[in-house]
Inverse folding.
């Protein structure tokens, strides 16, 4: 269960976050805004069991959200540690609220999208013959940080330098106040770009823009996917 976290939400009282990595990895003020109490335990199952016992929640019916994440082994360990608990899988309690965003969430998401668009525009403009993949990655990281976002990784990020006529493809994954962005951009590098049309890139880019037009209010996911 390394890399996992759990939140215990009582019917009344403070919520508790259980993490395996110490939360000094995260800004303390952000954690304080989001949660009342934090427990650090390298064994998240043990940490959850201990927190439930401390909160007098070790008996009775408890709902479990996240059945698609926890392994059968770790769920069994949780049940063994708390034999007085009757567990109910209630994933839908969280799925619907995750799908429906508040205005505050929309502001964060729009800011993150605008930031990554501005930064990748800047990086693509700098992706000229002689530029190194690593330098372009650092340029993206700095640009996102200046906009209050964080780059998790950008590929490619080697020491190779771009050549005239090369296709530069960048895959960017990052974070903005708890919300992910994951995009890809591409261009033909240098003076050969205008003289060398690329049917594959042109077709893919046109398809993505056309597909985005299908995402309209009132449409279902199935209708958009049918395109």
């Amino acid at each position: 269960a390394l890399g996992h976290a759990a939140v215990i939400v009582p019917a009344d009282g403070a919520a508790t976050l259980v993490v395996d990595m110490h939360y000094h990895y995260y800004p303390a003020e952000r954690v304080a805004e989001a949660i009342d109490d934090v427990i650090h335990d390298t064994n998240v199952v043990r940490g959850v069991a201990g927190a439930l016992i401390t909160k007098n929640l070790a008996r009775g019916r408890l709902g479990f959200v996240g059945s698609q994440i926890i392994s059968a082994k770790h769920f069994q360990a949780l049940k063994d540690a708390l034999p007085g608990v009757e567990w109910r899988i209630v994933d839908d309690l969280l799925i619907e609220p995750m799908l429906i965003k508040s205005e505050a969430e929309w502001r964060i998401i729009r800011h993150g999208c605008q930031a990554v668009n501005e930064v990748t525009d800047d990086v693509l403009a700098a992706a000229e013959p002689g530029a190194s993949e690593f330098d372009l990655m650092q340029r993206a990281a700095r640009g996102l940080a200046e906009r209050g976002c964080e780059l998790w990784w950008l590929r490619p990020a080697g020491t190779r330098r771009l050549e005239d006529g090369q296709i530069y493809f960048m895959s960017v994954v990052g974070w903005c106040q708890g919300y992910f962005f994951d995009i890809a951009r591409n261009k033909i590098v240098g003076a050969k770009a205008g003289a060398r049309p690329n049917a594959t890139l042109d077709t893919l880019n046109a398809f993505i823009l056309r597909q985005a037009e299908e995402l309209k209010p009132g449409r279902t996911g199935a209708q958009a996917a049918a395109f």
